[in-house]
Amino acid sequence: MSIKISVTVNGVKHTDRVEPRLLLVHYLRDTLRLTGTHVGCDTSNCGACTIHVNGKATKSCTMLAVQADKARITTIEGLAKDDKMHPLQEGFKECHGLQCGFCTPGIIMTAADLLQHNPKPSEEEIRLALEGNYCRCTGYHNIVKAIQFAADTMKATKKPRKEVVL
Amino acid sequence: MSTNGYIGKSVKRVEDKRFITGMGRYTDDIILPQQTYASFVRSPYAHAKILSVDISAAKAMPGVVAIYTGADVADVNGVPCGWQVNFKNGDTMKEPKHPLLVADKARHTGDAVAIVIAESQAEAVDAAQAVNVEYEELPCVVNASEAVRAGAPLVHQEVPNNICYDWTLGNPIADVDAAIYGAAHVTSLEFINQRLVPNAIEPRSYNSSYEVSTDKYTLYTSTQNPHLIRLLMCAFVLGIPEHKVRVVGPDVGGGFGSKIYHYTEEALLTWCTRKIKRPVKWTETRSEAFQTDAHGRDHITKADMGFDADGKIVALRVKTYANLGAYLSTFSTCIPTYLHGTLLQGLYTTPKINIEVTAVFTHTTAVDAYRGAGRPEATYLLERLIDLAAHEMNVDPVELRFKNFIPPFDGVTQPGYQTQVALQYDSGNYEGVLKKGLEMLGYENFRKEQKEAANNGKLLGVGFSTYIEACGIAPSAVVGSLGARAGLYEVGQVRVQPTGKVSVYTGSHSHGQGHETTFAQVVADKLGISMDDVEIVHGDSEAVAFGMGTYGSRSLAVGGSAIIKSIEKIIEKGKKIAAHKLEANADDIEFASGKFTVKGTDKSVGFGDVALTAYVPHHYPAGLEPGLDFSSFYDPANFTYPFGCHIAVVEVEKETGKVKLKRFVSVDDVGNVINPMIVEGQIHGGVVQGIGQALYEGAVYDNNGQLTNGSYMDYCMPRADDIPMIETAGQVTPCPHNPLGVKGAGEAGAIGSTPAVVNAVIDALWSGGHKVRDIRMPLTSERVWQAMKN
Fold first, then answer.
1. Residue A162 confidence (pLDDT) above 60
2. Domains B16-22+489-634 and B296-474+638-789 are alike in CATH topology
3. CATH class of residue range B16-22+489-634
4. pLDDT of B240
5. Among residues B78, B277, B704, B745, which is most buried (max CB within 10 A)?
6. What local confidence, expressed as pLDDT, does residue A10 receive?
7. CA of A22: which chain B residue's CA is closest?
């Protein structure tokens, strides 16, 4: 049995028939071959699979693909626009906010959500916002700096979340 | 060779772009034509007889391609152990077979009984659940000191008392006993260095394929050392000619040791792909990772440190039970011995040291190297003892360390320091790092603050840890004499292309360390060219001639040195070509800043011109081969010995025992530094893993051998909001025996930090009058609270 879904991923509309049990993360990785979104655990704790669903950071391993029907999704691959990096991507490079890179897409997507509704977060607010993401390489030090760097460089204006399109 | 200024600069990483845009390519990202997927049937019991395995129902499930059980691979060798440690009496260690699938008995939860291969991952999982295994559960043992007792359940029938080996190192035990007996003060401690789960965020993943027409295999694997996997799998397990196998370690999402080893699944998938003639892929679930990735630490230790009346250490005596788990992992046997016992000199002049290690099989997941591997255990032991001794003798822990430090030596004008436990330190200035750490901390002020806090009913504490480690692994002849079954050199090939662009092939493997940047900095500087003109290639046995991989903080010290050797050959040949072009004698040519110049003149030719001439040799020195491409093996003369000082400041909440880490100061001397940003990043990550051991982490087996915290819901690791900013600083004491003067930085953080945090908590409790000697790690609120109450 399969169910038809239509999703807009990084601005491109996709229509596919999927098994009802297919997780959104596997739809993105295996069907659409957007492999920047990663799977690091099976309990929704690591955050490596974080994407944006209708503008909000979401762990794509906690959602079925069928639940994403008609949703607007942004993955790490859709964050840069016309080859121009998102300030968070710049920040992670500038501040050495990544080592192995496996958790990085999820952390960047989480941070992008944070900066949408809190453009100037304190160190503590950044650390709390990352409570759903594990990084085993960096000790978080440079991740915090990278997000601060992005906050400083973004001309972010506080907008209601639903209006923000990444 | 002059430089154009990359070395020593925090150059931004060239590899970052692909990772921050989602274009990294990890093994699980790869799907091959005709791909099949595997799922394992694993034992839910720690110890059980396998009475029967019925695959009939599973075979009929949709999408199933093949199912294999232990009986199918009974004739295939098991995975080997790479290091032979002998019993004290000279007998060879016990080395029971580690089969690809078990047929008779399961020896830990997660032991693989069958592999199911299907058209999709979901179908493989479904069918694996339909495999019907009948088990007879047997009594098990999970604790190393219990496993050696008479009557304990045996993990392997052929291994009496579950003892893999017993081993000793250092001065004669009678001498050490006498020195301890005669000491003015003896600090004794029995403690557990608990079992940790490495938890690289990328789960292990393998994809093995076989091409019938060429009889060739390709294995994509999340490994730290592709060539080593190829060698072990081909020569020891499957008996496939090595040249018929390509092993690729693409982007790897962290390793911390756990991806060094040759795992059964790598060999089994390769065996399976030959059978079904289609690619087979398997990516472990996190739950499987907890049960099957090699764990770390798990020592039970009793140690006595004796002091004379002046506070000088007179002797150290150590007895350790090391839990190796159910099977020997690739390097498991050398961790509690040659990477632990050999480090017990620490930074101190202790004249008499003896260690005994009993390595034990239990019904648990295999234990092997995890970031630091043996050296964190040695450091924990020493630094807990010396801090506790300071409390007991009512002296300052800093003064006690200064009193016992080995004096500074550069290893050039002064000889290296010969320890009592086999090693010769290369160079060191141990006082220097502690002094710097104290300045950063503001030690005198801190003690005042601590007193005030105590007066106000608050528990503030500071903990010190001064560590040394043996890295740059390793001189082949030395490790060979100690039982290693491999050499530990590294390979570096430098290929100058006709246009002067440079491709470098290294046997080191980056899984987060940033080799594509650091190595390129070195090469660009040494050749006087732009970093943009250098590419670093690693991780593919077909591209790189050979290599031993990345672990033991060895990549730059050993792998970088191999590259330097090749660069020297390039320059030497380049001089001959340049001399011909400039009509001079090769001896009169000097190379600097990308130019070959006739000494004392302004006649010169650029590196690019020389490269082109090497490939278009129309006007060329007679007898000289065309081309500019050299490969070198570098076998280090000694280990390298980074060292440092870690200081933790904590506050303990009296009412709850909750530990708040307020500051962490880290001064690390890793020799010369190529990229300070990357080195600091390594320190941050290591420090936080070490803090994790002190405060949060630890695998917990119950008496039935069940891992009770085998998921991210249950196994606690540091999160961003648990950790303060890490205050780092460096000191540079160059390594005297490798061309870059580098020592290695990957493990330092995890080696030094754990005892600093525990010592800080103990210090906080003493400041409030709680004379607590030890608290079992991880220092949960409950344990700290209990310690205060008792």
1. no
2. yes
3. alpha beta
4. 97
5. B745
6. 98
7. B122
Task: Answer yes or no: is pLDDT of A161 > 50.
Answer: no
Mean pLDDT of B137-143: 98
CA–CA distances in Å: residue A29 to residues A34, A35, A65, B405, B478? 5, 5, 11, 55, 47
CA–CA distances in Å: residue B650 to residues A141, A147, B658, B723 = 18, 26, 10, 11
C-alpha count within 13 angstroms, C-beta hemisphere, residue B250: 19
Please tell me the predicted confidence (pLDDT) of residue B3: 52
CA distance B607 to chain A (A): 31
In this prediction, residue A157 carries a pLDDT of 45
Question: How much is the average pLDDT of B570-582?
Answer: 98
All structural domains of chain A:
3-78 (3.10.20.30), 87-156 (1.10.150.120)
Task: Provide CATH code, domain B296-474+638-789.
Answer: 3.30.365.10
Confidence of residue A82 (pLDDT cuts 50, 70, 90): confident
Per-chain mean pLDDT for chain B: 97
Position A155 confidence tier, pLDDT thresholds 50, 70, 90: low
Indicate yes or no: CB of B287 within 8 angstroms of CB of A94. no
The whole-number pLDDT of residue B4 equals 65
Residue of B nearest to A32 (CA): B29
Peptide bond preceding B778 in cis form (omega within 30 of 0): yes
B318 has pLDDT over 50 = yes
To the nearest whole percent, how much of chain B has pLDDT over 70? Answer: 99
* Residue numbers in B near A39 (CB within 8 A): 28, 203, 283
| CA-based torsion, B361, B366, B368, B374: positive or negative | negative
pLDDT at residue A160 tops 60 = no
Map B558-592 to HEC letters.
HHHHHHHHHHHHHHHHHHHHHHHHHCCCHHHEEEE
Q: How far is B109 from chain A (nearest CA, A)?
A: 18
The yes-or-no verdict on residue A165 having pLDDT over 60 is no
What is the identity of the amino acid at B680? E
pTM of this prediction? 0.97
Q: Which residue of A has its CA nearest to B675?
A: A96
Where along chain B do its domains lie?
16-22+489-634, 31-138+202-253+259-292, 296-474+638-789
Say which of A22, A35, A139 has its CB closest to residue B29: A35
Candidates B26, B711, B720; nearest CB to A144 = B720
Task: Please report, in angstroms and rounded to a whole number, the separation of the first and last CA atoms in chain B.
Answer: 64
A22 CB neighbours in chain B (<8 A) are: 122
B288-299 pLDDT tens trace: 999 999 999 999
Q: Do B687 and A37 make contact, defined as CB atoms within 8 angstroms?
A: no
* CB contact at 8 A, B364 and B375: no
Of A76, A94, A138, Cβ closest to residue B22: A76
Secondary structure (3-state) at B401 = helix
Which CATH superfamily, name and number, covers B31-138+202-253+259-292?
A: Aldehyde oxidase/xanthine dehydrogenase, a/b hammerhead (3.90.1170.50)
Of B678, B686, B720, the CB nearest to A127: B720
- Asked whether the beta carbons of residue B251 and residue A136 sit closer than 8 angstroms, the reply is no
Are the beta carbons of A100 and B202 separated by less than 8 Å? yes
Report the residue from A75, A127, A137 with minimal CB separation from B254.
Answer: A137
Best interface-test mutation with A: which of B21, B37, B207, B663 has the largest number of A CBs within 10 A?
A: B21
Contact A77 B719 (CB under 8 A): no
